[in-house]
Write a structure and sequence with these properties.
Chain lengths: ~300, ~290
């Protein structure tokens, strides 16, 4: 069989082959240049990291097509979500939160307020919708409503946490998001170990307020309370070690640091753990501090030892 | 008899003059300017904390959007107007080589895009300068009142040299897009087909980074090979986004080498697409 070199197919086919081969060669030749610049582009726009193609291809497409307009579009999507939120429309509220965070994952408000809407507001709507059942004189009906609300609360809490976990991929070590996680674990899921862990991470975040470290410390003491006697000592020791590490970093002149109260905690834990009081000046109470003689907060956290 | 560079320059000059007289160019220019001017209005809907960054993102987004449309539509229009009016026949009957004709067209469009980007980025820079002046004045007043202790942070300041470099990279990206359009036009028969195909290619180039980043993580060898192939076939237009990172100082400065590499990448693809367009146009019957 001979090839007709004057045919349309031959000419077009040859042209196409040359085009593809040239572009492929150019692509390979341009690789070193691309590899030199691309990591810089990507590291500055973490939303462009395509770690999981199946999960992120939609986001990648939106980001790639919208370019600089994605911020304003995300803002309008968020406002639309607020309208659905006002109408207590759960599916659309959540859909708009997901879309806004996909379009512009750099905005902290979307993650923080979005998780709050999902984890706190939506169970509140369920509560309101079933108020009549909850107050019913029929115990079975009231129990079913309570069980339903409990399930919604747990499910929405998990969904809120999932949103915050996504947010932390884009805004790593962000205090606000870690604090929101800790609060959801505490109030929605009643999961104290995870709440404590998130307070620890929040306390370690840049610009973390003083109270985050205290929250972690108190959660450790609550964990001690809930544990067996052997485990209790382990948690109390952990709380003590954390406080010893934290205490010297607290400024004496900042009321929010509550250095005086923390010095009381240090002494109380030394008493409970039967450790001699450390006389090192860096562990001394702040000048002029007078220990609260009632110390009402302490028996609650040392129920048996006190 | 004129030399080839002189011919190229003449064709470029006439292409540029023809293009700037078009209502389409002026329309896009006015739209782009209006969009930059409306950044303050749109900022009231923004949930991000930084007004200057929003203005810069929004303005550059507008320039990118309208510039891409201009690069594709103006190139296709200017090329096909020569074919449809038969002026290309007259021109190529003279001792003007086909590559000179095509290079002249591309240079003319590149000049047009330069004016477009230059005017809009200048407007954006002036607007950012004015906004930044206001922010600094408010900051100083707060400092005098003891509300803040530090000077206006460098992280919030607009880097005007960075903005100029970003403009150069934007222009280069549009010029590569114009070269792609010229390549499509060199073998297609209609303006509409050229515009549609070029926009599709533009979209692929904007999304090429997904293929670039994803191919190595795919398990199926066939899919992996296909994605690798696609990632090499089209340029990665997101690479030019490095220019956007120069407008504000990041926690870690962008290395000069990365900017040079992005520029080199653009130049390489400009040469490749122009050469392919010339090769394709040589065999075309006019």
């Amino acid at each position: 069989m001979t090839i007709d070199r004057t045919s349309w197919w031959w000419r077009r086919g040859r042209g196409l082959l040359i085009l593809v081969a040239s572009l492929l060669a150019a692509g390979v030749a341009a690789d070193p240049l691309q590899n030199a610049a691309w990591p810089e582009v990507r590291s500055r726009q973490p939303e462009m990291n395509m770690r999981d193609l199946a999960d992120n291809v939609g986001q990648g497409t939106l980001l790639g097509v919208l370019g600089g307009f994605r911020s304003i579009l995300a803002d309008f999507v968020w406002l639309q979500g607020y309208m659905y939120w006002e109408q207590h429309d759960r599916p659309n509220t959540e859909a708009m939160i997901q879309l806004a965070t996909t379009l512009d994952p750099r905005i902290l408000t979307f993650w923080d307020q979005g998780s709050s809407m999902i984890a706190y507001d939506i169970p509140g709507w369920a509560w309101r919708d079933h108020a009549e059942d909850l107050n019913s004189s029929d115990p079975a009906r009231a129990a079913a409503a309570a069980e339903y609300i409990n399930q919604v609360t747990l499910e929405q809490g998990r969904r809120g946490l999932s949103l915050l976990d996504r947010g932390l991929q884009f805004l790593p070590h962000n205090f606000t998001l870690l604090e929101a996680k800790a609060r959801i674990y505490t109030t929605r899921l009643k999961d104290l170990p995870n709440a404590a862990e998130n307070w620890r991470l929040a306390a370690a975040a840049a610009d973390s307020p003083f109270f985050a470290a205290r929250m972690y410390f108190q959660d450790l003491l609550k964990l001690a309370n809930a544990a067996s006697p052997d485990e209790r000592l382990r948690f109390q020791r952990k709380a003590y070690d954390y406080l010893r590490q934290l205490y010297p970093t607290l400024p004496a002149d900042a009321p929010a640091a509550q250095k005086g109260v923390m010095s009381d905690w240090l002494r109380a834990l030394e008493d409970v753990l039967k450790i001699p009081h450390d006389i090192d000046p860096k562990y001394a109470p702040p000048p002029g501090w007078k220990t609260d003689p009632t110390q009402e907060y302490m028996p609650e956290l040392f129920p048996e030892q006190n | 008899m004129t030399t080839a560079p002189a011919q190229v320059w003449q064709i470029a000059r006439l292409t540029f003059l023809e293009a700037v007289r078009q209502r389409f160019f002026n329309f896009l220019l006015i739209l782009g300017a209006a969009l930059i001017g409306s950044a303050s209005f749109f900022h009231q809907f923004d949930f991000g904390p930084q007004e200057l960054r929003f203005t810069a993102d929004f303005g550059l987004g507008g320039i990118m959007f309208f510039g891409s449309i201009l690069a594709v539509v103006a190139t296709a229009q200017l090329f096909f107007s020569e074919i449809e009016n038969r002026t290309a026949l007259t021109l190529l009957a003279k001792p003007v080589r086909r590559w000179s004709f095509l290079a002249g067209k591309l240079l003319g469009v590149a000049l047009l895009l330069f004016v477009f980007v230059g005017l809009l980025v200048s407007l954006l820079a002036a607007y950012l300068w004015w906004q930044q002046g206001q922010r600094i004045a408010i900051w100083h007043a707060a400092k005098l009142a003891g509300e803040v202790k530090t000077e206006f942070p460098d992280l919030l300041r607009v880097q005007f040299v960075g903005l100029a470099l970003d403009a150069v990279l934007l222009w280069l990206k549009f010029t590569v897009l114009a070269a792609i359009t010229l390549l499509v036009a060199s073998f297609s028969n209609t303006n509409l087909y050229t515009v549609i195909v070029s926009f599709f290619i533009f979209l692929i180039c904007q999304l090429q980074y997904i293929a670039h980043d994803a191919w190595s993580g795919l398990e199926s060898p066939i899919l992996r090979g296909l994605v690798w192939f696609l990632s090499k076939l089209f340029p990665n237009f997101q690479l030019f986004a490095i220019g956007d990172q120069l407008v504000f100082i990041g926690k870690v400065p962008v290395p000069d080498g990365a900017v040079v590499a992005a520029f080199g990448y653009g130049v390489l693809y400009l040469i490749v697409f122009t050469t392919l367009a010339v090769g394709s146009f040589r065999g075309r019957e006019i």
